[in-house]
Design brief:
The protein has 254 residues and is of the alpha/beta class. Helix content is 44%, strand content 15%.
């Protein structure tokens, strides 16, 4: 199926590993010009090479620190110089410090805000003018099931990912007339470094998933890529303002 995005310029942050890497390679197979961004240059170069092999029109690696506004601005400028205006952006980044509310300092709250909420708003604001001018754009944010059902011990994630989804939902109403769609993915238990950090110990992650996820297992990053790629496509032009859970049935919300 041709998703109608060959030659479009796509930026995937957090693209050096995990879900971001899987999405980047899936978009590459659709023939986009791909910018993968993260902190780890060596990992990014490997992803960019495999993206070219997968069918990307072009693919390049860009370093970025999402907690640093100057770094985000430099990233957007560099991608624009390399490829032209960004048509597709996948907002993806690492999770904030875990912990209960009483254990979070104001400095922790500030760091969570910068990394999870402000950075994604900065990226979004940076791509919107060109998308509006071109009357076409796709914005997809990778968040968490915590936006539907708060997760114990993930105070900052619960707060700031929910705020991001709410902000993007509001944005979707504003920019729909400009041909821009804005959607979010509520990610469930997926085999990434982040989940291994939250469930340390041999077999702990798998045991938790077996007990709590109706499908009975942890997801692979590749299981997220098809849905995100579809939302980035021409075929999804009538889908906007949605938060779609990919969680094996974990959340109980309707």
């Amino acid at each position: 199926m041709d998703l109608g995005i060959r030659g479009r310029v796509a930026l995937v942050t957090g693209g050096s590993a995990g879900i971001g890497e899987a999405i980047a390679l899936s978009l590459a197979a659709e023939g986009v010009s791909l910018a993968v961004a993260a902190r780890r240059r060596d990992k990014l170069e490997s992803v960019a090479k495999r993206a070219k092999d997968a069918g990307a029109t072009d693919a390049r690696a860009f370093e970025v620190d999402l907690s640093d506004s100057k770094s985000i601005g430099k990233l957007l400028g560099a991608v624009n110089d390399a490829f032209g205006a960004i048509d597709i952006v996948v907002l993806n980044g690492g999770g904030p410090k875990p912990g209960t509310p009483s254990k979070m300092t104001l400095e922790d709250w500030d760091a969570g805000y910068r990394g999870v909420l402000r950075s994604m708003i900065e990226l979004t604001n940076g791509v919107l003018p060109a998308m509006a001018a071109n009357q076409w754009g796709r914005i997809v944010a990778l968040t968490s099931t915590s936006v539907r059902q708060p997760i114990p011990n993930l105070t900052l994630s619960n707060a700031f990912r929910t705020a991001l989804v709410s902000a993007l939902k509001t944005l979707s109403l504003e920019v729909a007339k400009d041909g821009i769609t804005v959607n979010s993915i509520a990610t469930g238990r997926v085999n990434t470094d982040r989940l291994r950090q939250l469930y340390p110990g041999a077999g702990a992650m798998e045991a938790a998933a077996a007990a709590e996820v109706p499908i009975g297992r942890v997801a692979t990053p590749e299981e997220f890529a098809p849905m995100v790629t579809f939302l980035c496509s021409e075929a999804a032009r009538y889908v906007t303002g949605q938060t779609i859970a990919i969680d094996g049935g974990l959340t109980r919300a309707l």
